[in-house]
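hey so u asked for the seq, here:
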Amino acid sequence: MSGPEQPAPGILRLTCETPPPPGWPRPFFYLLGREKLLLIDTGYREEQTVSRLQSLLMRNSARLEKLVITHGHVDHAGAMAEIKDRFAPRIFAHEMEKDLLEARGLALAVDEWLTGEPVIESEAGPLKVLSTPGHSPGHICLWLEQQRALFTGDLVVGEGTSFVGPPDGDMSSYMRSLQKIKQLEAELIFPGHGPVIREPKRHLASLVEHRLLRETQILLLLKQGPATSRELETRIYAGLIHPGLYGVAEMTVMGHLVKLEKEGKVVSETVGGEKKYRLLVPLPF
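ran it, structure tokens below
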């Protein structure tokens, strides 16, 4: 974990020592307050994170009282159990994330399963829990209205886009969640990956436009004939992304296809043992 940044009053931004898999961005997590601290996410499971947190707390005569998990993927929740064992914070996660955390052996560390959209108190100000499914079923964002700042986990990242697709993700939910947070008119976004976003309105508009353009691209490719998700992924991404990301790129293509099938725009058929997608509607372009 490299030295913390302070992107805003009462907020420290931290990251891990563990390098992410090839092509993947490094995760960031956030420490709020001065004496009674609240941590948002944990990064990967690693002893360095726990040791550095302990040094930071001792140096500031502070106590880690709360840990809030935006979602259950290992680059955001991996060190939950170790942090609980060392510092005994009260740990919060959304109830819709329970299955995902159980599958990773992390659910037992959670003290409170969140329902609805409660407020969690912090020394930096009240944090409003926002249900923002899409990247995962129980993904949440945290709204610090006092600073017009939003902590977005993997709903919104600072560079590029999040992967959204099966088995954890749902593209329809993801698009609704983006529209939901646009209404906040945040002035700062603290993402789970990439730089702090200081022009949220423009960044969110760009994300929505990107997803709609990707959907149009898939429809245009299917206009040329039926295709598998792998064939579509190759035609869309070949040479444009790190090879280590091809798997999640196909998952995101699948996320779009599931959405389009629900909307009655495409249909899936098994042809020669392969699942192929076929266009169902005429395109106006």
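The chain has a mean pLDDT of 95. The chain has two domains: 5-198, 211-279.
lmk if thats what u needed
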